[in-house]
Amino acid sequence: MELTWHGHSTWYVTVGDTSLLIDPFFDNPFTALDPSDVETPDYILLTHGHADHIADAGEFDGATVVGTPEVVGYVEAEMGVDETLGMNIGGTVELGDAFVSMVRADHTNGLGTSYEYDAGVPGGYVVSDTKPTQVSDSDSTTFYHAGDTGLMTDMREIFAPYLEPDAAALPVGDHYTMGPWQAAIATDWLDVDHVFPMHYDTFPAIEIDIRDFEREVKAVGSDADVHVLEADESFTLE
């Protein structure tokens, strides 16, 4: 599985022959890329309806946009997206070579510049090359994109034992989401081998010293490797 971070919460994930773009928002200070510079993915996954997560969802002709029915209905009506797939918390869908589960996130939601539209519930995604079951599968490769969220016990009680992520991308910028210390606890609860900070330093309100996250992960006793990626940098998850 190939993971590429394009700044903020934007990730390009390749599973076998299937490509997925999560929360496309290229107007961020980390990347110099425009949507036109990025290969059109097979699927676009939207965690929730805030503008810094869906801004470029309509820029990839031919991609199928996945999200809650409320969010995909909005991008159809307002952003000219033709192909959509609605799903919801707890559901798993097979998208080419990937199995994608939508999981809970603790956050707010809304659509439009003044959030005049209801966007349903926010979520995160667990992307795996095998279908999740109650039977542990040590051969699977699984990536958890937390979306915008605070710390929640689902990470420890459900995601870790049953979805078994090997790696997690967690928001660490504080103010609107978890900050470094809560994200470090999430890292420990998820029992992942690799963790990637995201959703920080994009706006003044979420500017942090990213070394605080590294220190907090160490302090909580997690064995996870912390990967602070540069914009557009890739990591191969095996």
From TrEMBL:
Residues 7-199 form the Metallo-beta-lactamase domain. This is UPF0173 metal-dependent hydrolase AUR66_04260. The keyword Hydrolase applies. Belongs to the UPF0173 family. InterPro entries: Metallo-B-lactamas, RibonucZ/Hydroxyglut_hydro, UPF0173, UPF0173_UPF0282_UlaG_hydrolase. Pfam families: Lactamase_B_3 (PF13483). Keywords: Hydrolase. SMART domains: Lactamase_B. One of its GO terms (molecular function) is hydrolase activity. The keyword Signal does not apply.
